[in-house]
UniProtKB/TrEMBL annotation:
GO terms for biological process: axon development; central nervous system myelination. GO terms for cellular component: myelin sheath; plasma membrane. It comes from Poecilia mexicana. This is Proteolipid protein 1a. InterPro entries: Myelin_PLP. The keyword NADP does not apply. Keywords: Membrane, Transmembrane, Transmembrane helix. Pfam families: Myelin_PLP (PF01275). The chain crosses the membrane at residues 70-92, 113-137, 204-224. GO terms for molecular function: structural constituent of myelin sheath.
């Protein structure tokens, strides 16, 4: 057999769907965890600088941010290992492996493992859908803040009107109602929107939101590919191929 034919047979055994899903998952988790972690740090800085003067007003928020950052560390580690496991399972169950390595031996253990991955990935996709929706909340907050700042810039010639345009962090549950000042209005709010910290935090949350969406797409791709691979194993199992374990 020539080198070209050997390479073609090796490439034929690659589960491309699982490979694409793995790349999507790695890139999505990297975006979500990296940008989300830094965005939380910048959010605490913004609240501390512009919306709260007393440490006791935002100490609870600081603890929550720290807790979510630890969760992000765990998510990054978990998804790295889980994606590697799904990719390995894709190599094991892909139908192309039968053409590459000869007669495919489907076992009861292999089919149970594949069905377990399908259920786990499906449940993980449902849970991640909630994370995807939750990651849209800070984007919504900063979008409203940016829209308010744009309105203030348009109405700069009527200062009496722009002073009534405010963003109250207490309304979003970020601060207690007795926090001072708790909100930013008028030109103060407009100046906040022009700072580097605000622009970077906004962009980081958008990137984290996009990363959550990419990860969700990867999990759905995994679900489809795993279901197809399981169907192949079931078909081979009904033909009585291979031993039982």
């Amino acid at each position: 057999m020539g080198c070209y034919d050997c390479c073609m047979r090796c490439l034929g055994g690659v589960p491309y769907c699982s490979l694409v899903a793995t790349l999507l998952c790695f890139s999505g988790i990297a975006l979500f965890c990296g940008c989300g972690h830094q965005a939380l740090t910048e959010t605490e800085r913004l609240i501390e600088t512009y919306f709260a003067r007393n440490l006791q007003d935002y100490i609870t928020l600081a603890y929550i941010i720290q807790y979510f950052q630890y969760v992000i560390y765990g998510l990054a580690s978990f998804f790295f290992l889980y994606c590697i496991a799904l990719l390995a399972e894709g190599f094991y169950t892909t139908s192309a492996a039968k053409q590459t390595f000869g007669e495919f031996r489907s076992t009861m253990c292999g089919r149970c493992l594949s069905s377990s991955f399908i259920v786990m990935t499906y449940l993980l996709a449902v849970l991640w859908l909630l994370v995807f929706a939750f990651s849209a909340l800070p984007v919504y907050f900063f979008y409203n803040m940016d829209a308010t700042c744009s309105t203030i810039d348009v109405l700069t010639e009527t200062p009496a009107s722009i002073n009534q345009l405010c963003v109250d962090a207490r309304q979003y549950g970020l601060l207690p109602w007795n926090a001072v000042p708790g909100k930013a209005c008028g030109m103060t709010l407009s100046n906040i929107c022009k700072t580097r910290e605000y622009q970077m935090t906004y962009n980081l949350y958008v990137a984290a939101f996009a990363g959550a969406g990419i990860t969700l797409l990867a999990l759905l791709t995994y679900t489809v590919s795993s279901t197809y691979n399981f169907a192949v194993l079931r078909y081979l199992g009904r033909k009585g191929i291979g031993p039982r374990c």
